[in-house]
Write a structure and sequence with these properties.
InterPro entries: 4Fe4S_Fe-S-bd (IPR017896), 4Fe4S_Fe_S_CS (IPR017900). The protein is mainly alpha-helical. The protein contains 10 helices and 4 strands. The strands form 2 sheets. The chain has a two-stranded antiparallel sheet. A two-stranded antiparallel ribbon has the order 2-3.
Length: about 220
C-alpha cells in the first residue's frame, strides 16, 4: 500500500495514493495472470538487489529499530481516552494506562500507524524530543557504564567477544528503552508536559493517511 508512515512524513494525498495503488495493482494482476496460466513470472529484480544490499540494515531494524520506534508514540493533551487506538490495533499492542487512562505502546507495536492515522482527535504524536530522551536514557552514557561494569566483573572486555558483547548490549537496551518509556509515560501524566511536547512535535502538523477504500469499520473487522 502507499506509505502511511506519518511518524516521519506527511500522509500521501488521495491523488498520489491513487497513482501508487494503480501501479501496484497492475503488477499484481500481471503476476496473477502468469500464475493462473501456469507460467513463470519474474518481478522485483531491482528490489531484490537492493534488498540484499540493505539486508544488514533490515536485520538491525527487525531486532532493534522496530522496538525503538514502538516507543516513540504518545498522546497529547487533546486525548480523551476513548480507546479507539487500542481497539483497532492489529497487534493488540496498545493498552490504556494511568489516570486518566492514556494509550501506552508495548513492544508488540509494528508501527503500522493505524492509531495515529485514525485517531478522531489527532491526539497521537511522535516527538523528536521523546526520541532523543529515550535514546539518551537507553544508550548514552548508561550503556557504556553498564558495559564497563560488566567487563570489570567478568575480568575481560565484553567488546572483545562480539556475540557476547552484542547480547549484553541488546538485553540492556531493550530493558532500558522499556524503563525509559515507562518513566516518560508517567511524566506525560502532566498536562503541561503533554502540551509542550505536542507543540514540539512535527506530526502535529502532518496530514494523516487512510488507505483509499478502507474505512474504520474495515479495520475493526481484522
Amino acid at each position: 500500500m502507499p506509505s502511511n508512515w506519518t511518524a516521519l512524513h506527511w500522509g500521501l494525498s488521495g491523488e498520489n495514493a491513487a497513482v501508487v495503488t494503480a501501479v501496484a495493482e497492475g503488477r499484481v494482476k500481471s503476476a496473477l495472470d502468469a500464475f493462473l496460466a501456469g507460467k513463470r513470472h519474474y518481478d522485483g529484480v531491482v528490489q531484490l538487489f537492493f534488498g540484499l544490499l540493505l539486508a544488514k540494515i533490515s536485520l538491525m531494524y527487525l531486532i532493534l529499530g522496530q522496538l525503538f520506534f514502538a516507543k516513540l508514540f504518545f498522546a497529547d493533551d487533546t486525548c480523551t481516552g476513548c480507546g479507539l487506538c487500542k481497539t483497532i490495533c492489529p497487534k493488540r499492542a496498545v493498552r490504556l494506562a494511568g489516570r486518566p487512562p492514556r494509550p501506552y505502546w508495548t513492544y508488540a507495536c509494528d508501527s503500522c500507524m493505524a492509531c495515529i492515522n485514525f485517531c478522531p482527535h489527532k491526539a497521537i504524536q511522535v516527538s523528536p524530543l521523546v526520541a532523543i530522551l529515550i535514546y539518551y536514557l537507553a544508550t548514552v552514557p548508561a550503556l557504556a557504564w553498564a558495559m564497563a561494569l560488566a567487563s570489570a566483573r567478568l575480568g575481560f572486555d565484553l567488546a572483545s567477544v562480539p556475540l557476547l558483547g552484542f547480547s549484553v548490549q541488546y538485553a540492556y537496551t531493550l530493558l532500558a528503552i522499556a524503563a525509559a518509556y515507562s518513566l516518560l509515560h508517567l511524566a506525560f501524566g502532566s498536562r503541561l508536559l503533554r502540551f509542550l511536547a505536542a507543540r514540539l512535535s512535527h506530526t502535529r502538523y502532518f496530514r494523516r493517511y487512510t488507505a483509499p477504500g478502507v474505512s474504520l469499520a474495515d479495520i475493526h473487522k481484522q
